[in-house]
Design a protein that fits this description.
The chain is an alpha/beta fold. The protein has 13 helices and 12 strands. α2 runs parallel beside α4. Bound molecules: nicotinamide-adenine-dinucleotide (NAD). The site of nicotinamide-adenine-dinucleotide has 31 residues, from α1, α4, β5 and β7.
Length: 397
């Protein structure tokens, strides 16, 4: 175990699903920590996800691209960042099939720019200063490819065999991160996690899609025959795992993170429907909404991940069971106004799903334009061009 005590953390992609949950988790867990959230605010990012966070200097938002090396280098240097936790990525497999180059740009070239900035700005690997730095790359079990029915779960020693452009771009970035450790001594750690679910997940991912469909009494799209199997990890459990790896993981090591909650997509949808049957018995049975749609090309049949290394070395274990995690997630979404999936939602395009509300229920309210929001604490949101200047001013306020 190598102990690391972050003081100033750069969280990339922190306005997305896992990143925003992680920022909340870290600010609560460590009162002495300051966080800079760097996010481009693509369709997947929203300032709403950062609502209620403390203002600068504890937490500050900079809108910008991880691929903008000079912006990142200035942030690392001016703010004396000692820890990078890198979430920023294009993450939706369906989108990677329709626009693979966007995934190469952000996931491979963006990670490359971030690594290069850290190499150039952080002290020489031989010096003491480097030992107080850490680059945590957040990756996915999808880099390992698909498993057969009886194959053992992926371990950290499993070979990479990605199927989708998303998984291939994440695998490429993982290799780059390892190469920067081996070649330049950059103090990196990598985590590969199972499918996450929980509050603030983007509407177009599977669990929010099922919840939104139940809510609107609209068709629930399930790929193929619904037999694809996934291990489902509650996002708060993932955040605790990331915290353990960033603070106590061994430099240069990879840690797999899964919940051991493996089940078929169809069974997952049925479980969500069963919870909706209890919450809204007047609409039961919600399972009648399940609609099978043509399978996604290159769809991996099964993922399962062996988390014994992180349990053995860092004492991490998942706490949330799927049933209670799903209930919390559903309650979180139901407590908020409904948001339509983006108009260019790949599932909507490819499968010609009926529009929201087709079976019944109210039309969804329009999504607020998050880029016009103001940052909590009064400082304006920042663009990559003026981010550094305004950022420093808000940090001093
Ligand atoms: N969601 C999962 O189930 C899961 C599982 C394993 C690993 N991961 C990994 O965790 C990370 C976060 O996933 P997520 O589900 O929160 O993703 P997300 O799509 O919800 O959020 C991604 C965030 O990155 C930002 N972003 C995209 N391109 C950017 C760029 N070029 N520069 C700066 N910001 C940019 C987006 O605006 C968004 O806020 C990703 O690296 C993903 O590969 C996710």
């Amino acid at each position: 175990m190598s102990e690391h005590a972050p003081r100033v953390m750069l969280v990339t992609g922190g306005a997305g699903f896992i990143g925003s949950n992680f920022i909340r988790h870290e600010l609560q867990a460590d009162p002495g920590l300051a966080i800079i959230c760097l996010d481009k605010l693509t369709y997947a990012g929203s300032l709403d996800h950062l609502d209620g966070l403390p203002a600068a200097p504890r937490c500050r938002f900079v809108q910008g691209d991880v691929g903008d090396r000079s912006l990142v280098a200035r942030l690392l240097g001016d703010d004396q960042v000692d820890t990078i936790v890198h979430f920023a990525a294009e993450t939706h497999v369906d989108r990677s099939i329709s626009d693979p180059e966007a995934f190469v740009r952000t996931n491979v070239l963006g990670t490359s720019a971030l690594l290069e900035a850290a190499r150039l700005v952080w002290p020489d690997p031989a010096s003491d200063g480097q030992r107080r730095r850490r680059f945590h790359h957040v990756s996915t079990d999808e880099a390992y490819g698909a498993l057969g029915a009886d194959a053992p779960a992926f371990t950290e020693a499993s070979a990479y065999a990605p199927s989708s452009p998303y998984a291939a771009s994440k695998a490429g970035s993982d290799h780059l991160v390892r190469a920067y450790h081996r070649t330049y001594g950059l103090p990196v750690v990598i985590s590969n996690s199972a499918n996450n679910y929980g509050p603030r997940q983007n509407q177009e991912k599977l669990i929010p899609t099922v919840i939104a469909a139940c809510r609107r009494r609209a068709p629930i799209p399930i790929y193929g025959d619904g037999s694809h199997r996934r291990d489902w990890l509650y996002v708060e459990d993932h955040c605790r795992a990331l915290d353990a790896v960033v603070r106590s993981g061994r430099t240069g090591e990879t840690y797999n993170v899964g919940a051991g909650e493996e089940l078929a997509n169809l069974d997952l949808a049925r479980r969500i429907c069963a919870i909706f049957d209890q919450i809204r018995p007047q609409d039961a049975p919600h399972a009648r909404l399940i609609a099978f749609v043509p399978d996604r090309p290159g769809h991996d049949w099964r993922y399962a991940i062996d988390s014994s290394k992180i349990t053995r070395e860092l004492g991490w274990r998942p706490r949330e069971r799927l049933e209670s995690g799903l209930r919390k997630t559903i309650e979180w979404f139901l407590a908020r106004p409904e948001r339509p999936a983006p108009l260019d939602h790949p599932q909507r395009r490819r499968q010609r799903l009926p529009p929201a509300g087709a079976i019944g229920g109210p039309a969804p309210s329009a999504r607020p334009d998050s880029t016009r929001r103001r940052w909590p604490g009064g400082s304006a949101w920042l663009s990559s061009r003026d981010g550094l200047r305004l950022g420093r001013r808000s940090a001093a306020s």
